Amino acid sequence: MPRPDLAATAAALDLLPREVVTGTVTGLGGLAVTLEGFGPLAAIGDRVRLEPPGRTPVLAEIAAFRDGRAEAIAMGPLAGLTDGARAVLAPRPALAVSEAWLGRVLDPMGAPMDGLPPPAPGAQPRATHSPAPPAGQRARLGPRMALGVRALDLFTPVRQGQRLGLFAASGVGKSTLMAMLAGGVEADVIVFALVGERGRELREFLEDDLGPERLAKSVVICATSDTAAPVRREAAYAAMTVAEHFRDQGKQVLLLMDSVTRFALALREIGLAVREPPATRGYPPSVFTELPRLLERAGPGEEGCGGAITALFTVLVEGDDHDEPVADAVRGILDGHVVLDRRIAEAGRYPPVDVLRSLSRTAPGVLDPAERPLVGAARRILSTWGEVRDLVRLGAYRTGHDPVADEAVRLAPAVEQVLMQPKGEASDPSEAFAMLGAALTEGG
């Protein structure tokens, strides 16, 4: 068996090009750059430094080969790049994560975005595009993890190492719910992946939602919406790499990614730029290959590691269509999903979690015998209330004809009150179940 120090050195050397290899730009079109001269020394995923005369070099990533030429996607503006410009093969993407990254806001390449000096690098760089732990050697999920949001702790309980999706249309409250989770979940390290984020919202999120105390134990990886598609895609991979670093140290990591949809859109831009044929609603097949490669990396580490990545991914459903391709694919990969409903938000109940359409696949193993009847009764009441609510509002409902409906009309408002929770208020599962039990037995 190789010595650990030699293995680390070999892994670091493997990330470097074997020699200085140069090529030439021979074509520019849209987002793609055509390169010649690398021969068999370049591979898919390699980085290339484009050097226009008298201008700042631009990084690009090789995404395809066609007719003996490499096609790369630029990671910066192409203004000033000319036919015949020099291209140099660069190291593959890797991050040397360390404890100094805590409390920092960085771009996907590890460069600071908070105006501070670059963080001290770790001893061993980690490739950002790495496989998930072997399925047969992964540890099992850990104990229940309190999320601090009553609607989730009651109806979609989560275990350490679980992966949950937050599904909603735009403007329904995904970011607000993420902020509540950041303030309510107890974890050793929190990693945020802001993929395609609005630039003006970064400081608002850091100062208003996160705060200095939570930021001190967090790493924020951000790629704003005006960055190139490879940079936005790399933000998701970089955040996952940071989370894996701390997980492998035996720590409990909370990974919050906003959003998987923007990650998929970046993949679509890359695929279409290299002329990959569109398949499902304009998404190339490679999008649905990359999604599980990213999402499967979250979760427990290998047996004996002791750490786990509990991950929550937001999914933007276009036009409130929860069966659109990306949402459908992500829902099938993750261990549960939370649906945020616009009608609930418009009615004034926040967070607007539709508990009847939300699901945690680990709930049967999390809820104890005293909690299961409460959840079942609450679901039944909310379901019946949804059926008779319009009749009640129209004055067409009469009590005494259906005992189940009468119970729902009497108790549903109290259950809805339990689910209502202002931003900044945190609760624990025992408190949430006590409130639910009181609502079911006394009607509030």
Automatic annotation (TrEMBL):
Q: Which InterPro entries match?
A: AAA+_ATPase (IPR003593), ATPase_a/bsu_AS (IPR020003), ATPase_alpha/beta_chains (IPR050053), ATPase_F1/V1/A1_a/bsu_nucl-bd (IPR000194), ATPase_T3SS_FliI/YscN (IPR005714), P-loop_NTPase (IPR027417), T3SS_ATPase_C (IPR040627)
Keywords (alphabetical) are: ATP-binding, Cytoplasm, Nucleotide-binding, Protein transport, Translocase, Transport
Its source organism is Roseomonas nitratireducens
Protein name listed in UniProt: FliI/YscN family ATPase
Stretches assigned to the AAA+ ATPase domain: 160-345
Q: Where in the cell is it found?
A: Cytoplasm
**Annotated region described as Disordered, given as residue ranges:** 112-139
> Do the record's keywords include ATP-binding?
yes
Question: What Pfam families does this protein map onto?
Answer: ATP-synt_ab, T3SS_ATPase_C
Indicate where this protein is primarily found: cytoplasm
Could you tell me which SMART domains the record lists for this protein? AAA (SM00382)
Q: What is the lineage of its organism?
A: Bacteria, Pseudomonadati, Pseudomonadota, Alphaproteobacteria, Acetobacterales
Q: Which reaction does it catalyse?
A: ATP + H2O + cellular proteinSide 1 = ADP + phosphate + cellular proteinSide 2
